[in-house]
Structure formats: structure tokens, C-alpha cells
């Protein structure tokens, strides 16, 4: 039954590791903003590069209309 | 009606079609171009019409050329790498986050940028060799994300976020869980060979776990109890600290002497629940600030004029604090005057809306005195400083003692008042029981004494208020009343006097109740008027223009605007003059009474026609609010304006409402003080900086805000203007909340009674304490939560019925 000592110390060690990690992450400010990361993770990783050639060919038209009501 | 592809506003005056999309202005189109050319069109895919129209910023950020100012704004600077944080009020959607975090695509100098959405801030690290801070700010402004930089930023302290409560809670929770596991075998009191072998080991392990709980997690209670005792107040922390100390000492003795397991499980559980209550009570609205003073509104720098050696006048960007009496300043359009000054050159049109709540700007001629806090709205003016920033008419209000006091420390909370009686009763019971056992069976006396103090530890009482108030706070949040902290609710329940500011609080910011008096205008004249107003940028012209029919837009033959006076224009032989009474050239003396009102006078072909009178519009439900509040409270109106509106107010408000006019900021503060001297508990409801003193002095100070994103002075709560007519309901709701706390007290006293009956008979086993303590705590939490949700539902039903 002396194995209990070992089991206990292992379980305590694991618990303490998690505890320290949690305190560490709070200290780093990881819980200061809980909203933005949830939005950020939905963004595309890389911007979709358009074909530069095709882009320059599209002619931009600009016209100004006065709205009359 | 077409909506702008960028900002989503309706394209009213012009519609710019560009790249097959519609834009409401060139600013929006430019932003679109910038983003499109940099392959950032994903911005528009993420959300529909996510943008904000960029504002005119020419010259606005020249002060960022001044290195001392830049240094103050920077969070970190190692010569090359610089880090800066800005508040950007226009952050509002996921597209905003995306574009701001992809700033490096727009400027290679940006190494990283991170948005904190709830706080509406961005933190940018950039290389100062490649780009200056000024260019960065200009870039942000050009894409419609103009940072808000104010005097407040100049004394940036190291942001010290207090996270100690989270640590304390974590430690208590961690210890609670582990100790529970370790003490479980002993709950059943079976003697078993192996269990007996490990008993001492388990017990000392529990002791080790309880050490950080007692000496770190509970430290706040010990210091608070000590402070309370020193100022002769028996606050709730006294019995808690006593209970914790007794628990720890008794338990340690228990395991040392091998009397039993001790109460380490109850000890850690108690602190875990208590701290959980504290944590729950904190509900912060991170994008709102309740501590603002004039500093977060004033600019960080001004343009100072001085003569150089060659005798030429040179402009210089000076920090506001370095401005002294006699300096010449240049105030541009839309800049805020941070000092009291005399107008030297130019025509001033000063908007004091942040100070007084008055939306209509005031015209000033050279030689006139200007007060700090006004926003110039018509061109550039030159002024000479009379008083520097810290001594101006407005800012000296903050030197009043009120602003150095902490309101919440003065008042005695409901919990503290009950704890006084509770502690005395508890100590009496403990001593009586001890004396009794000393006579009957001295061996049990120590046991009983400690057991009483342990079991009566007012955990449930201490939890009743935080959980009720925390819930009520959240319900108020959904009703758009944002409170600074939970203790405000208890204060709200005790109020018996309500003081309103008039301008901006009872009235809306828009003056759109416009009536015409005089000779009716012909259709031709009306058209001429519309066309004339169209070109004017004066706020009154804009609001008048918005109500007139707009057809047949023509270009005028002649148009001239004299700042502060009016406009003259002509078209097809017809001439028109629009503006002040003197300007339009009327000699009709019978109209003098109208002169005092806000009005736009009109004359055509040199004949006076009449005037449009602008009446400040009162918020909907003002009379009803006064009626409801007047039932059990005294209601007073305190206005900084002259008596012009007295009659109108008197006719509108119920009888018995006292009206006071011509109140300076200091007067308002002193008025509240004198009410409090009479023993009244005062709620002040205001909006502008001139109310700041009164808001601070009052027991509860609320600010009415049309837009919670913009500035509001220091207060206890911010109420959205749309919910103005529900103030009486909210005050009643806070009363019900306090009622719930009282019920919860009774419930927890009942638990204490059960516990004490175990304790005084000397039968308190650790397992009983370990069951009773969490049971009472949890049932209190459940009771308060259900009860507050119930009254919250009733509040919403009441409000819905009214609408």
C-alpha cells in the first residue's frame, strides 16, 4: 500500500502543474479579453491573393450623381 | 434610397457610383479604394457595410511632431521598435477587428497589431525608423478608425490590472477540491487498518493545502476586519476573519493532538464561496468609464503662436500643461479650447455641449471671454490665454475636496449593519455556552467555544448581498442602465430626493421642435430659403434645412455667409437674408421678446418676414417620470440656464417640483451638499461636465447619455437616454433587490441557528460542518438567483406594458 505515497505525489504534481499553468496564463493577460479571440479564430489565415493582372484590367468607373428628392 | 457600400448610411445629398458600388461621400469611397488596392476587400465580405466615414483631419495631428508628446503616448520605445495603444471609438464589428489586425498590409512598418474588442482598443507595435507615430495615426484616420487621443493619455500610468482576486479564488478552489478528496475517507469514521496508517499523512497534507488559503486567499478579510475594528466598525469581515482564524487554529490543534480531522475542508470551502461571491459581484463594462474628468475630453496639445528672433510669428505644437497666461493660441475648426481665454482674432462659434449639455453653439466676437471646454465650430480663431488649464472656470471644479473622497467607503452597507448585531449576538452565545460547559464539563468548553465560532461564520450572510446585487447589476445592464459597482444598488434603494439637470438631461440634444412665426412665405421664397440654407454649415441652418421640403435645387447667384451673424443670398432678382435678429435688419420693436429665444430670422427683399423658433425638445415621458418619482420623493430641477424656460417647465411638470435656475457648477455641488446636510439622500441626474461636481457629491449620480461611446463625466451609473422614462421603475427595482437580500439574511440565520444548536451541545462533527456550510451557501445562491430573475422578469413585463 505504500504505493499510495507515489500515486498521491504524482496526482498532486499533475494538479500543481495545471494550477501553475493557469496562474501563468492569467498573469500573461490571456483572460483579459475573452471576446476578440473568438472572432479572430474565424478569419481566414491568409489573404486570398487576386490575380494582379486581372485586377489592373478592370476599369474603374466613377460617377457622381446628385440625388434630387 | 441607395445605401453606402462602405458605411451603410443612406446616400442623401450625393451618390457616388464607383466600381459598380454606391458611396455616400468621397471619404467612404477613398477608404474603399485604399482597402481594394491593398487586397483587403475581404473587409466587406466579413460584414455588410462595416465602415465608418473618415473625418477631416488636416493639421489635426501636427502635435505628434512634438517628440515629448509622442514619448508620453508610447507604451514602449527602444529607439526602433515602438508600441502604442489607442482607443478607437469606431470599432464595432468583426470586420473592424480584421482590418485593424491586418494593418501591416497597409503599412509595412507595422509589425503587429492586436484589437481588444470589448475595450475598443488597439495595440500596435511598429518600427519607428520606417514610419512615424503621426503617419500611423493619419493612416488609421484615413481608413475611418480615428484614434481618440486626449489629455488623459499624457499621464499614462503603467496599466496595473488587479488580478489578485482571481488568484485568491483559484487557490481557494484548488485547495478546496484537494482537501475534500483527502478528508473523504474520514467522513465515514470506519477504523480500517490502512486508513489509520495514512491518517496522519493525509491530515498534514490537508494542513499544507490550507496554508495558502488562510494566509493568501483570506488575507483581504483579515486586513478589512483590522481596519474596521480600528475605526470601531464591526463590519461583516470581522466575524468572517474570526471564523477563519478559529477554524485554522482549532483544526491545527486537532491534528497535532490527534483529536480529530479538523475542519480544513470547511475552511477552504468557506473561502472559495466567499471569494466566488466577490468575483460575481464584479461586473465591469469595459468600454464604459465611470472615472472620467475633463482630462479625457481636453486635447493633449494646442497650437501656440510665438515670435521668433527674426520677429516673425511661428506656430508651435505645445503640450497643454505648458500653456501659460498671456500665450497666444490658435484654435482650429472642431478643436476644443482647453483654457479660459480672450478672443483676439476671428469669429468664434463655440459649442459648449459637453460642458452644459446645450446643443446650440454660441457666437462670440473678438474681445469676448471664452471659457475652457468649448469646441470651436467656425474656422480658425486666435485667442490669448487668461488662465492656464488647471485654473480655468471649469477645471477648478475638480480641485474641490469631493473629488478626492471615495464615495463607497463612507456609506454603511446593509450587510455591515446586520453584521454589527450578528457579531455581538454570536460572541454572547459563544461566551455563554463556554461558561455553561466550564461549569458542567470543562473538557468540552474549548470544543464548544470554537465550534460556535466556526459554525456561525456568516458565510451565507456574506454571500446574500454579492449574489443578489450581482444579479440586479446584470439585469440593469440588459435594461441599458450601466452601474459602476454593486454597492450603488443599495444606495439607490435609499434615495428620497431626485435632482435633475435641465439642459441635455430633460431636453434632448437635438432642437428639432421648430415653429414658424410671422408672415407666411411664398413658394418662391421657401425655395430660395432652402437653397440658401443648403450651403450653410451652421448647426441651426442644418437642422432647419432638414425639415424643409427639398425640391428644385438651384445654384444661387450670390451667397455670402458672415460667421456668427447670418447668410445673405440672391437669385433671380430676389434677395434673402437669414440669420440673427439684428442681421436681417428688422426694426419691429414688438418682436423683442422673440429676441431672447433661439431663432432664425428671415427677410426677403429687405422686408422682414418672420422667424423660425427653435424650442428645446423635452424627452418623452418627462412629465410621467416626475409624476412617478414625486409619489414618494422630492424632485428638483437644477439648471445652469436663465429663467427663460421656467413657464414652460412649470406648465409641464406636476406641482411641487422646485425649479432653480442660474446655477454655476459650484452652486450645483453646494446645493446637493446642503440637501444632504438636511439628511436627504440625493440622486443627481445630469449629463455635462458642469454637473460633475454635483454628480460626485450626490449619494448616487447618474449620467444620461445619448450615445454611450461618447464622453460622460465621472458618475455611478450611465443611463441610455432612450430609457429615461423608466427611472422610477429602476429605483423601485433596486428596492426589491434589497428586499431579497433581507429575505436571504433570514434564510441564512435559520441555517446558523441549526449549526449553533449542534455547536452549543458539543456535537459538531467535521462532517456536519462540511455539509452545512456548502449547503447553506449554495441554497442562498440559488434563492437569490431565482428571486432576482423573478423580479427582473416582472420589471421587464411592467416596462413592456408601458411601451
Q: Write out the strand line-up for the largest beta sheet of chain B, numbering strands in chain order.
A: 16-28-27-26-17-24-25
Poorly predicted tracts of residues of chain B:
none
Shape of chain A: elongated
Number of strands of chain A: 1
Low-confidence stretches of chain A: 50-60
Strand-residue proportion of chain A: 5-15%
Average pLDDT rating of chain B: 82
Query: Whole-Å distance between the termini of chain A?
Result: 91 Å
- Largest sheet data of chain A: none
Largest interface: chains, residues each: A-B, 36 and 41 residues
Helix-and-strand structural type of chain A: mainly alpha
Describe the sheet with the most strands of chain B. Answer: 7 strands, mixed
Rg estimate of chain A, integer Å: 29 Å
What does this entry look like structurally?
Chain A is mostly helical and 69 residues long. Chain A is 52% helix and 7% strand. The longest helix of chain A has 25 residues, at 3-27. The radius of gyration of chain A is 29 Å and the shape is elongated. Chain B folds into six domains: 1-53, no CATH class; 62-155, 2-Layer Sandwich (Alpha-Beta Plaits), CATH 3.30.70.100; 164-282 and 413-467 and 736-801, no CATH class; 300-334 and 339-391, Calcium-transporting ATPase, cytoplasmic transduction domain A, CATH 2.70.150.10; 480-508 and 619-728, HAD superfamily/HAD-like (Rossmann fold), CATH 3.40.50; 513-615, Calcium-transporting ATPase, cytoplasmic domain N (3-Layer(aba) Sandwich). Chain B contains 25 helices and 28 strands. The longest helix of chain B is centred in the last third of the chain and has 37 residues, at 766-802. The radius of gyration of chain B is 33 Å and the shape is elongated. Chain B starts with 13 loop residues before the first strand and ends with a helix. The interface between A and B is large, with 36 and 41 residues. Chain A: It comes from Aequorivita vitellina. Chain A: The chain crosses the membrane at residues 6-26. Chain A: This is Cbb3-type cytochrome oxidase assembly protein CcoS.
Amino acid at each position: 500500500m505504500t504505493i499510495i505515497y507515489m500515486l498521491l505525489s504524482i496526482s498532486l504534481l499533475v494538479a500543481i502543474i495545471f494550477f501553475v499553468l493557469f496562474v501563468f496564463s492569467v498573469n500573461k493577460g490571456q483572460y483579459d479579453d475573452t471576446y476578440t479571440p473568438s472572432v479572430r479564430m474565424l478569419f481566414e489565415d491568409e489573404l486570398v491573393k487576386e490575380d494582379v493582372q486581372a485586377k489592373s484590367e478592370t476599369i474603374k468607373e466613377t460617377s457622381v450623381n446628385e440625388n434630387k428628392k | 434610397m441607395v445605401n453606402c457600400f462602405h458605411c451603410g448610411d443612406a446616400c442623401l445629398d450625393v451618390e457616388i457610383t464607383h466600381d459598380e458600388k454606391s458611396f455616400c461621400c468621397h471619404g467612404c469611397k477613398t477608404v474603399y479604394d485604399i482597402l481594394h488596392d491593398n487586397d483587403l476587400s475581404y473587409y466587406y465580405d466579413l460584414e455588410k457595410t462595416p465602415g465608418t466615414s473618415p473625418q477631416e483631419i488636416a493639421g489635426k495631428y501636427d502635435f505628434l511632431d512634438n517628440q515629448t508628446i509622442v514619448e508620453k503616448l508610447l507604451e514602449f520605445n527602444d529607439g526602433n521598435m515602438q508600441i502604442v495603444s489607442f482607443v478607437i471609438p469606431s470599432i464595432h464589428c468583426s470586420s473592424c477587428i480584421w482590418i485593424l489586425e491586418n494593418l501591416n498590409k497597409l503599412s509595412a512598418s507595422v509589425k503587429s497589431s492586436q484589437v481588444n474588442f470589448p475595450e475598443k482598443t488597439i495595440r500596435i507595435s511598429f518600427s519607428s525608423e520606417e514610419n512615424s507615430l503621426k503617419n500611423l495615426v493619419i493612416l488609421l484616420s484615413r481608413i475611418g478608425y480615428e484614434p481618440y487621443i486626449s489629455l488623459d493619455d499624457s499621464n499614462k500610468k503603467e496599466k496595473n490590472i488587479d488580478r489578485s482576486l482571481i488568484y485568491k479564488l483559484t487557490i481557494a478552489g484548488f485547495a478546496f477540491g484537494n482537501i475534500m478528496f483527502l478528508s473523504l475517507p474520514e467522513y465515514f469514521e470506519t477504523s480500517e487498518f490502512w486508513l489509520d496508517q495514512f491518517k496522519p499523512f493525509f491530515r498534514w497534507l490537508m494542513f499544507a493545502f490550507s496554508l495558502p488559503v488562510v494566509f493568501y486567499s483570506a488575507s483581504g478579510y483579515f486586513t478589512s476586519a483590522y481596519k474596521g475594528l480600528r475605526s470601531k466598525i464591526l463590519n461583516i469581515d470581522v466575524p468572517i476573519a474570526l471564523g477563519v482564524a478559529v477554524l485554522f487554529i482549532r483544526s491545527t490543534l486537532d491534528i497535532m493532538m490527534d483529536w480529530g480531522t479538523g475542519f480544513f475542508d470547511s475552511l477552504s470551502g468557506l473561502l472559495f464561496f466567499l471569494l466566488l461571491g466577490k468575483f460575481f459581484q464584479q461586473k465591469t463594462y469595459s468600454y464604459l468609464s465611470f472615472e472620467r474628468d475633463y482630462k479625457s475630453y481636453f486635447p493633449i496639445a494646442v497650437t501656440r503662436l510665438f515670435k521668433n528672433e527674426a520677429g516673425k510669428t511661428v506656430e508651435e505644437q505645445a503640450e497643454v500643461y505648458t500653456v501659460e497666461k498671456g500665450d497666444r493660441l490658435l484654435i482650429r475648426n472642431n478643436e476644443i479650447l482647453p483654457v479660459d481665454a480672450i478672443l483676439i482674432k476671428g469669429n468664434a462659434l463655440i459649442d459648449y455641449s459637453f460642458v452644459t449639455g446645450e446643443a446650440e453653439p454660441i457666437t462670440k466676437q473678438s474681445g469676448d471671454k471664452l471659457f475652457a471646454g468649448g469646441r470651436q465650430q467656425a474656422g480658425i480663431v486666435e485667442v490669448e490665454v487668461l488662465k492656464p488649464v488647471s485654473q480655468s472656470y471649469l477645471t477648478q471644479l475638480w480641485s474641490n475636496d469631493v473629488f478626492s473622497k471615495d464615495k463607497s467607503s463612507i456609506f454603511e452597507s446593509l450587510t455591515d449593519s446586520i453584521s454589527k448585531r450578528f457579531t455581538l449576538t454570536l460572541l454572547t452565545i459563544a461566551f455563554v455556552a463556554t461558561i455553561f460547559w466550564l461549569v458542567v464539563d470543562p473538557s468540552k468548553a474549548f470544543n464548544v467555544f470554537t465550534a460556535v465560532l466556526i459554525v456561525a461564520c456568516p458565510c451565507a450572510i456574506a454571500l446574500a448581498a454579492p449574489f443578489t446585487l450581482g444579479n440586479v447589476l446584470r439585469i440593469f445592464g440588459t435594461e441599458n442602465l450601466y452601474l459602476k459597482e454593486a454597492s450603488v444598488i443599495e444606495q439607490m434603494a435609499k434615495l428620497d430626493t431626485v435632482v435633475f439637470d435641465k439642459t441635455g438631461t430633460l431636453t434632448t440634444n437635438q432642437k428639432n421642435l421648430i415653429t414658424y412665426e410671422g408672415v407666411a412665405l411664398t413658394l418662391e421664397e421657401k425655395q430660395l430659403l432652402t437653397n440658401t440654407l443648403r450651403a450653410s454649415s451652421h448647426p441651426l441652418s442644418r437642422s432647419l434645412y432638414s425639415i424643409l421640403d427639398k425640391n428644385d435645387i438651384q445654384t444661387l447667384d450670390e451667397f455670402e455667409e458672415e460667421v456668427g451673424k447670418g447668410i445673405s443670398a440672391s437669385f433671380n432678382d430676389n434677395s434673402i437674408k437669414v440669420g440673427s435678429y439684428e442681421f436681417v435688419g428688422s426694426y419691429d420693436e414688438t418682436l423683442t421678446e422673440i429676441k431672447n429665444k433661439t431663432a432664425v430670422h428671415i427677410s426677403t427683399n429687405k422686408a422682414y418676414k418672420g422667424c423660425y423658433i427653435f424650442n428645446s425638445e423635452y424627452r418623452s415621458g418627462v412629465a410621467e417620470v416626475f409624476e412617478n418619482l414625486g409619489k414618494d420623493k422630492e424632485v428638483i430641477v437644477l439648471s445652469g440656464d436663465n429663467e427663460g424656460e421656467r413657464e414652460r417647465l412649470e406648465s409641464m411638470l406636476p406641482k411641487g417640483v422646485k425649479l432653480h435656475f442660474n446655477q454655476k457648477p459650484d452652486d450645483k455641488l453646494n446645493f446637493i451638499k446642503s440637501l444632504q446636510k438636511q439628511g436627504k439622500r440625493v440622486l443627481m441626474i445630469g449629463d455635462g461636465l458642469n454637473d460633475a461636481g454635483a454628480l460626485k457629491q450626490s449619494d448616487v449620480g447618474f449620467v444620461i447619455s445619448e450615445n454611450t461611446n461618447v464622453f460622460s463625466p465621472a458618475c455611478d451609473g450611465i443611463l441610455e437616454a432612450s430609457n429615461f422614462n423608466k427611472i422610477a421603475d429602476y429605483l423601485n427595482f433596486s428596492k426589491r433587490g434589497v428586499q431579497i437580500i433581507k429575505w436571504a439574511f433570514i434564510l441564512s440565520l435559520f441555517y446558523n441557528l441549526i449549526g449553533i444548536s449542534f455547536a452549543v451541545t458539543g456535537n459538531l462533527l467535521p462532517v456536519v460542518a462540511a455539509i452545512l456550510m456548502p449547503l447553506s451557501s449554495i441554497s442562498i445562491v440559488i434563492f437569490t438567483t431565482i428571486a432576482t430573475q423573478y423580479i427582473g422578469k416582472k420589471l421587464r413585463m411592467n416596462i413592456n406594458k408601458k411601451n
